[in-house]
Design a protein that fits this description.
The chain is of the alpha+beta class. Helices cover 43% and strands 28% of the residues.
Length: 480
């Protein structure tokens, strides 16, 4: 069966055109004429760039010419994946068109290149769809960026609200003149002013500058080292009531470093301690007044006892013991008053109580144990017990001669929900010890231990070498 390939090419839906070595159009099929909107007689025999003119400096002209020149030079096929080549319409206007082109060399009978077959595909719609897809992708990315920007704006607003509502006062100062860039509500309330942004500290708060704080800011800015102010008095003048207000502040001047590690500003942050300091001052006055009244009360009790037992026969020794107990109690109150009735150290309680009874301990009494704080109630109870032990040691035990020794050791063992205090009073080198036939008030006081909700236990051993008293107390923790 004979096939007419020229007729087959003419009927092909794909555009084909045949060029000679001078790039003249020598044949084209109907699909090519339809794609280019030309008549055969108008373009046949004309050069490609004459039939379809383009600007020689354009990218379209360069792409097409380079591809055709490559085929002529090498005899190899060449492809253009995408080329924009606009086509003139019959009405004189121009259509923007995108093409994909293949240039295939065709040889004559002598084997030399004679023609170039150009096969083109109009990909304008496909290119526009891709552009639309890209534009949609750009829009999606833009929407995503916009959404992120909105999130960042909301987050920035939240952080700004946190900054404004922070309980401590905060201000951000910029540059060497310390210009206010940001302040929170607490800072404005502290200084009693509103419109200070954009002003330097010296301009906005002249009274602060007069007190030397601008000099401190200058030093922080110059050295890059923060400044810590602890309970510093500051006088502020503003809309505060009274207009001139003395405040006590804890604060820090913290330098702000830029990317080059240079100081660009200072953060001022701190807390107003005025109320706390005033409370502590009032508390100290009340405690001192309480101590004064306790001492007066103890003196009255002592006076009453002396008056009551003045005419009682043989009451003087008992009176001396009673006075010593009152003095020990007064000494313990004095120790707690000095610390504003806050917890007291075990070692301080022992030293004070034993020295009040015996005088300087020298090498006669050894204390060994960790630093530990006892509540005021426990401290008073321990004072009375140690006073009785020291008094008995002076009268009958190891401190009644010149060679006896007393060792006091204590330890703290933490339990699940409380602490265990174990204190051992050990006497050696005194007279031989014999357990008394009956217990006096002092012995009963020691045996009663220290008042504690969790319980206390006292064990007294009258060993021949000397008395050993072991005190165990379950201590409440502060957070119980």
């Amino acid at each position: 069966m004979a096939i007419d390939f020229l007729e087959l090419a003419e009927a092909s839906p794909n555009p084909y055109v045949l060029l000679d070595r001078d790039l003249r159009l020598v044949w084209m099929n109907a699909a090519y004429l339809a794609a280019t909107m030309r008549e055969r007689d108008d373009i046949i025999g004309r050069a490609m760039f004459d039939a379809f003119p383009s600007d020689p400096s354009s990218e379209s002209h360069r792409q097409l010419k380079d591809s055709l020149d490559h085929v002529l030079r090498t005899g190899e096929a060449d492809e253009i994946a995408l080329i924009r080549y606009d086509i003139a319409r019959p009405d004189g206007g121009m259509d923007t068109r995108y093409w994909s082109a293949t240039h295939t060399p065709m040889s004559g009978s002598d084997g030399s290149l004679k023609y170039i077959l150009q096969h083109t595909v109009d990909v304008t719609e496909l290119h526009e769809l891709r552009q639309l897809s890209d534009e949609m992708g750009v829009m999606r990315r833009a929407d995503a960026v916009q959404a992120r920007n909105r999130d960042l704006a909301r987050e920035s607003q939240r952080l700004l609200e946190f900054f404004r509502q922070a309980p401590g006062f905060v201000a951000v100062l910029g540059g060497p003149d310390h210009v206010f860039q940001m302040t929170n509500t607490a800072y404005l309330d502290l200084v009693g002013r509103e419109d200070i942004l954009g002003l330097s500290v010296a301009q906005a708060l002249p009274e602060v500058a007069a007190q030397g704080f601008v000099d401190v800011l200058d030093r922080v800015y110059a050295t890059g080292e923060p400044y810590f102010g602890r309970r510093e008095p500051v006088v502020l003048e503003g809309s505060n009531d009274p207009a001139s207000s003395r405040r006590v502040l804890n604060f820090i001047f913290q330098p702000i470093f830029d990317s080059a590690n240079r100081v660009g500003g200072i953060i001022v942050q701190g807390y107003d301690m005025t109320d706390e300091v005033e409370y502590e001052h009032r508390q100290s006055l009340l405690i001192n007044e309480l101590s004064h009244r306790v001492k007066n009360t103890l003196a009255v009790v002592q006076g009453l006892a002396q008056q009551t037992f003045r005419n009682v026969p043989d009451s003087q020794p008992a009176m001396q013991t009673y006075k010593a107990r009152l003095q020990a109690l007064a000494a313990a109150h004095g120790l707690l008053t000095e610390s504003n009735w806050s917890p007291a150290k075990v070692r301080d309680i022992l030293s004070l109580t034993i020295e009040a009874a015996f005088g300087p301990m020298d090498d006669r009494v050894e204390l060994a144990g960790p630093d530990f704080l006892l509540s005021p109630d426990t401290a008073l109870g321990l004072t009375m017990i140690v006073h009785e032990l020291a008094t008995n040691a002076i009268k009958y035990g190891a401190l009644s001669n010149d060679i006896g020794m007393v060792t006091v050791e204590w330890s703290i063992e933490p339990a699940a929900d409380h602490d265990e205090l174990r204190l051992t009073w050990r006497e050696r080198g005194g007279p031989a010890v014999v357990e008394p036939a009956q217990r006096g008030f002092g012995t009963r006081l020691i045996g009663s231990g220290i008042s504690s909700r969790r319980g206390t236990h006292v064990e007294m051993s009258f060993e021949p070498e000397g008395l050993v008293c072991v005190l165990q107390v379950s201590l409440e923790r502060e957070d119980d």
